[in-house]
Amino acid sequence: MTSRHLPVLDLAPPAVAPDGPRPAAAAADARVAEFRPVDQALPRFWVWTLGCQMNKSDSEEMAGRLLATGCAEAPGMEAADLIVINTCAIREAAEAKVIGRQGALAALKAANPALRVVLTGCAVRERDRAGLRRRFPAVDLFLRPDEEPELVERLGLASAQGPVGLGSGNGAPNPPGSAVAPRTAATTVVKGVAVSAADHLAGSRADAVASGAVRRESAVAAWLPIIYGCDKTCTYCIVPFSRGPERSRPFDEVVDEARALAAAGYREITLLGQNVNSYGHDLPAEARFAHVAEARRAGRQIDRASRPDLAELIRAIDALRGPDGGLAVPRLRFITSHPWDLSDRLVDAMAEAPSVCAALHLPVQSGDDEVLHRMGRQYSIAHYEERLGRIRGAIPGIAVSTDVIVGFCGETEAQFASTLRLLETIRYEQVFAAAYSPRPGTPATRLPDDVPAAVKKERLNRLLALQEEIGFARNRERLGSVASVLVDTLERPRGHDHAEEGGEPPPPTLAGRDPFAAPLPDGWVRLAGRSRENRLVHLAGPAAIVGSIVDVRIEAVGPYSLRGVLA
Ligand code: SAH
Ligand code: SF4
Ligand code: F3S
Fold first, then answer.
1. 392 conformational bin, left if phi > 0, alpha if psi -120 to 50, beta if neither
2. Smallest-distance ligand from the CA of 51
3. Domain containing residue 556
4. What digits encode the pLDDT tens for the residues 462-510?
5. Helices 413-426 & 381-394, crossing angle to 10 degrees?
């Protein structure tokens, strides 16, 4: 075969102007002018993300899909021609934040008639489609969480630069020009009413990953969704109505994504799901998982025989090796674990897999069995404490954090006092607490929301004050110890007058000798990262260590963070 010489065009790279308006579609070389995409067809986008890590991860995928289509990211919401709002609906305040911005969005649309606003995330529930227009009048397109992979197609952007996203489900990207047929969705039905459609997410995530259409916020630590939706029936919770039933991603697909992340240099992976302990029960049985023989009662009997579970997944990711033969993923985390489904198999895997960090988020919600029963949480405090005892026995020094709801329907002062006592006995490293907020359509709306707002607030303040003391005491125990820190943040330079420079104010109380009291050595900057126990650690060092795992001697602590120097 003879080789043919093709004319080589010396094309200038595209002009990059992240802050200004996009360059006109003038071709860098006149000979290829006709092949340039039509510039105005590609909006500059801005994604506004509220809510939990699952939303952050979903937003990374939406931004990635838009970038892969050829859209550029706007430097801010005001400069965008496409605003994607990824909403949270967990409490009324989260939705109110977006409702409160409708006027400002309408003003932006008046100034820029090309502007389109897409609203997605947990505020978009099938049952409530009609109410969406009224509550979010500035929005042009509503997408349920399971419809997010269709964003590019639904905006008519797909054909501009070739297909992204929705593929055949076999992991391969679509062939250029192929028509994309959205897969039909399974549906969650509650009392004969469709509340949420199951989605194509589990299939299309692999396509997005394979085609590079995930724009990760960090180059160091990555989110990795493993299961979508939630099959629990916590009576206060909107999530099952927003995100539909549980759908696990195929085992090998998750391991492949972890392997690719490791190869791309990621040091930490957090496996995501509303209840990661449910992972795998909906996947097909396979001979290679024949040793998994666990049944589970989760409101209904779930047969886990021969199906992968989180323990298998953790072990498989832990077994990945880098070129040097060491752990390919040095740090592995997962959220969130429902206490009822936390199996011995998982505890053993956590204890035996060196990559698994010594930190566990185990939401308790209340310290009182009656309240837990009304919340539909399935476990008792005795069960919770038994599970925690087992974990602490297996992984000494593990840091445990939790979520608490105060002022749930019918919560008495005595029942609230039980929650405070539980915090004192368990001594969590961190507690995320909020006042109960009734969510439309959830079972708890049939119970009277009878704890007055002022009482909820007062209980919340008491709980937070107690936890501040406990967290501070916990952190003081770490004074003088050496923490292994994955440095992921370059902090804004600031002087001693923190507030004036717009940085975080210094913690009100600090125990130990503050390593930042004296000027930093030349060439050093302020950095931050997380210890394996998931403690926020501030440190000083050369900027080049961002992305590295370093040993830090803890010299000062506050209630919410630690400060140290390179050991
Ligand atoms: N799937 C996770 C949590 C999802 S929501 C889990 O089961 O733990 C995160 C937290 O929000 C919950 O743990 C709960 O503490 C809180 N939350 C959920 N619904 C709420 C409501 N209606 N009012 C106040 N807090 C709520
Ligand atoms: Fe909500 Fe309960 Fe599911 Fe968590 S486990 S998402 S609190 S229903
Ligand atoms: Fe909010 Fe939805 Fe997460 S309601 S907390 S964004 S799952």
1. alpha
2. 3
3. 482-496+504-566
4. 999 999 999 999 999 999 999 999 999 999 765 544 444 444 555 567 8
5. 10
Report which of residues 45 and 28 the model is more confident about: 45
pTM: 0.86
Nearest-angstrom CA–CA distance, 267 and 114? 41
The CA 55 to ligand 2 mean position distance, Å, reads 15
Q: Which residues line ligand 3 (CB under 6 A)?
A: 51-52, 54-55, 88-90, 121-122, 238-239, 242-243
- pLDDT at position 25 over 60: no
Q: How far is the CA of 234 from the centre of ligand 1 (A)?
A: 9
| pLDDT band, very low/low/confident/very high, at 299 (cuts 50, 70, 90) | low
Q: Is the CB of 230 inside a 6 Å radius of any atom of ligand 2?
A: yes
The answer to whether residue 326 scores a pLDDT higher than 50 is yes
Closest CA to ligand 2's atom 1: 237
What domain count does the chain have? Answer: 2
CATH of the domain at 115: 3.40.50.12160
Q: How many helices (H) and strands (E) does the chain have?
A: 15, 23
Inside any domain, residue 457: no
| Nearest-ligand number for the alpha carbon of 376 | 2
Residue 243 Cα: closest atom of ligand 3: 7
Among 139, 156, 172, give the residue marking a domain's end: 172
Which pLDDT belongs to residue 41? 67
Phi-psi sector, 28: left (phi>0), alpha (psi -120 to 50), beta: alpha
Query: 73 C-alpha vs ligand 1 centroid, how far in Å?
Result: 32
